[in-house]
Specification:
83 residues; alpha+beta; 4 helices; 13% strand; globular
């Protein structure tokens, strides 16, 4: 029962992410553990596999570290395109 609630909650979380990035032309995924791969699978199941430009391992990051990582991947984007 607890596992089912967890997976339902996780599915809702990924759906919220999808709502925010559905129109993205390029998607960079990074983070700790397996969550990044679960998100990748969710994106692929929604037909967005071709928009994923990278899936990278990363530990816990601050907002500044996240912004720096994104700017390295997408150097021509303005700061307003990042978040």
């Amino acid at each position: 029962m607890r596992d089912r609630r967890f997976w339902n909650h996780l599915g809702e979380y990924y759906d919220k992410i999808m709502a925010q990035i559905r129109d993205a032309t390029e998607i960079q995924i990074f983070g700790p553990e397996e969550a990044k791969y679960e998100l990748q699978k969710h994106l692929e199941s929604e037909g967005l596999a071709e928009h994923i430009v990278s899936v990278e391992d990363a530990g816990t990051l601050t907002n500044v570290q996240i912004a720096t990582r994104v700017r390295k991947r997408f150097p021509t984007r303005s700061q307003f395109d990042i978040f």
